Amino acid sequence: MQSALPYIRTKPSELSARVEDVCLNAWPALQEIHYDGWLIRLADGHTRRTNSVNLLQAGSRPLSEKIAYCEDVYRRHGLPSCFRILSTHKRTVEDLLAERGYRQADETRTLYMDFALHPPASEETHAVELVPQVPSAEWLSARMRFQNAPASERSKVEKILQQLAIPAVFAATRDESGAIVSIAKGAVHDGLACLNMVASDPTKLRRGYSRSCLSAILGWAREELGATGACLQVVSGNMSAIRLYERLGFARELYRYHYRTLRMA
């Protein structure tokens, strides 16, 4: 099911720029290259978010030269060349990428919650465990299990989380057997909280576990760190998650983004 809102180009705003900063800091790459206003991120191929080019500023070099440079970087690292395109970007770069054979995929919405308009409510139907800064081994195992991820991905996630340089917390809820059934992560930068790594046991959905996790993180961000708002990024077609986030207070969409990827030869 697709999002009801159309994908449109929007003008960048100060708030959108702040949200981009917190989202980048909340999910760090293992290696980064700054090149003429672009940020090239590398993380052993784990998620396109940390293995793509982010167009931060226009720069001065010819676009074709810059694209070729990025392609060479990813080629040397054995990864497909990938660009993250925001709806606030002009179409120039994307048109050049399309001409070079880049395919578009995975539209994502960036949602925002203003605590002045939607104060975090205490809706913890289930008890929530909050662990600061570093997740437990059990938390990581639960994430791998929920996503049916191969064992090789665990070490990549651990390395990425070790790069976190901003305050963070890892939330978990358990069922009556004591097993973790839902998790989420929150991180705060520049007065804004970013929520990500939201996942649940697929056999225990729609029981309020995720809502409890997210509510606890929002309360922590506001009460412990003085956050004034929160943001998250969600795939446009994931309407069940979007409805949950809207009920929590994520009532404003700031911008969208999608990827343009070139298949490896």
Q: Any descriptors?
A:
265 residues, alpha+beta, Aminopeptidase, 2 domains, 7 helices, 11 strands
Give structural notes.
- The protein starts with 13 loop residues before the first helix and ends with a strand.
- The longest helix is centred in the last third of the chain and has 17 residues, at 209-225.
- The protein is built from seven helices and eleven strands.
- The radius of gyration is 19 Å and the shape is globular.
- The chain has two domains: 14-108 and 257-262; 114-255, Gcn5-related N-acetyltransferase (GNAT) (Aminopeptidase), CATH 3.40.630.
- α2 (63-76) links the parallel β3 (53-55) and β4 (81-86).
- It has helices at 14-26, 63-76, 92-99, 137-146, 151-161, 209-225, 239-248, and strands spanning 31-35, 38-42, 53-55, 81-86, 103-114, 128-132, 168-174, 180-189, 192-200, 229-235, 252-262.
- It is of the alpha+beta class.
- An eleven-stranded mixed beta sheet has the order 1-2-3-4-11-5-10-9-8-7-6, with helices on both faces.
